[in-house]
Predict the structure.
Amino acid sequence: MSRIQLESVSKTFGSTHVIRDVCLDIADGEFMVLLGPSGCGKSTLLRMVAGLAQPTSGRILLNNNDVTCAPPRQRDLAMVFQSYALYPHLTVAKNIGFPLRTHGQSRRSIAESVSKTAATLGLTHLLGRRPAELSGGQRQRVALGRAMVREPGAFLMDEPLSNLDAKLRSATRTELIELHRRLGTTFLYVTHDQVEAMTMAMRIALLNEGRIEQVGTPAELYDTPRSVFVAGFLGAPPMNLFDAKVVRRGGELHVDSPGFTAPLGIMSDSHVDRTVTVGIRPERIRLVSASGASTAKVVTVENLGSEELVHLSVGPNSLCARVTRPTSVQAGAHTTFIVDPSDIHLFDNDGRRLTWKDEERAPVVSGRAVSIPAFTS
Ligand SMILES: Nc1ncnc2c1ncn2[C@@H]1O[C@H](COP(=O)(O)OP(=O)(O)O)[C@@H](O)[C@H]1O
Ligand SMILES: [Mg+2]
């Protein structure tokens, strides 16, 4: 059982700042995912928690004890890598039991632990095989078994599913969620894959260039992204983002850009005349066939089977709408679309989310949707 705390952790290599002032408090038993693009510092951060690298400044605490300078073996953590790192000449049983042998346990107690771990992971029938005789998924389960056998206080995993094909990756995701539920151990899991993060995490810490952009539940990051970076990183296809201006019209704030205007349901003067970035999720754009409303031009329609991605040209901007099939729209046609004011995200020039106080909002009319005039060029 382990609580992991990072206090203002920074890491530089020469003059390169790789981790910048990271603070993170991971609760005992939590499944925390460190998410971010390649090169943003995820592995570096995980290695510092493991004790394989030292922070340049800041502290790392395990169960309230400062372990910043403690060697890996004093941390009671187990690390699982993308590359499995199994011993090719040893059987599955010996690979799993390896950490116990180095701890000098008796043969019998090692055999018992190995057998219990193998049963948990469905590896019992493979105990006599060597890594070369296993599939990728089986090898990764052996690597997990080797991490589990010591019953560590926390698991640190660095992109453990990256070498698996899509189907196996999805199945192993489910297995890891189930394993976490059964063990109740802290998981700190690194990935660049937003689907892994969204499906497995209790909380996600999204990293960008060594800084934490936002920490929260998957729903919090998806529904109220604190920055343009978070908004654009989560979601496939990504959130539509384009520049606009906040204006006051008819007692209410609107956002305008060439060919586009939408009311915000805000009755205040704050942020008026500011240039902002508007964000609208593709699934929040609804195509409607109301006559007399304004239209956007349909550029292409991608059929995904259950849904369609409709690419729209709206003034100078390209927007994507994700709609259920069948739709009646076709490439080259014009269509009308609506977006609810609560589905419009706004960000300032620095990419930070704009918010309004509750008392600045117009009274909510339930189910109100606004038509967005979308003048095409
Ligand atoms: N030992 C090192 N020396 C110099 N630069 C490093 C070292 N380790 C990592 N880096 C740099 O730090 C950045 C973050 O790397 P890494 O933590 O591996 O990112 P991620 O795991 O998110 O892909 C990269 O730009 C990488 O080149
Ligand atoms: Mg990495």
